[in-house]
Amino acid sequence: MKFIWDEPKRISNIDKHGLDFALTHLVFESDTFTFEDNRIVYNERRFITLGLLEGTPVVVVHRNRR
Questions:
Q1: Which domain of life is it from (predicted)?
Q2: Are 32 and 51 spatial neighbours (Cβ–Cβ below 8 Å)?
Q3: 3-state secondary structure of 35
Q4: What pLDDT band is residue 1 in, cutting at 50, 70 and 90?
Q5: Distance from the first to the final alpha carbon of the chain
Q6: Total structural domains within the chain
Q7: Residue 2 lies in a domain
Q8: Helix ranges, the chain (H)
Q9: Does residue 1 sit within a domain?
Q10: Residue 58's pLDDT is what?
Q11: Residue 33 lies in a domain
Q12: pLDDT of residue 24
């Protein structure tokens, strides 16, 4: 799986939450629970994944690109 992100959003996420998108791949290297994010109608399929990042529970919202 390849991960890409918007760099300004990555910097903002580090500032706001202390979490770096560059470490996201580590979440998917262990057990996760993923479900479709259907809280509102998006113009794409979005997913929410619950997992651990270095032992800390995290939520990753993502989409699959083809």
A1: Bacteria
A2: yes
A3: strand
A4: confident
A5: 11
A6: 1
A7: no
A8: 7-17, 24-27
A9: no
A10: 95
A11: yes
A12: 92
Q: What is the distance between the alpha carbons of residues 53 and 34, in angstroms, rounded to a whole number?
A: 15
* Cα–Cα distance measured from residue 44 to residue 54, given in angstroms and rounded to the nearest whole number: 30
CA pair distance 58, 51, nearest whole angstrom: 6
Place of tokens 């990042």: 53
- Residue type at 24? T
Structure tokens, 57: 């529970």
Q: What is the pLDDT of residues 7-35, one digit of tens each?
A: 999 999 999 999 999 999 999 999 999 99
d(CA 40, CA 35): 14
Tokens of 42: 């998006």
CA atoms 15, 21, 27, 29: torsion sign = negative
Name the residue with tokens 């993923």.
34
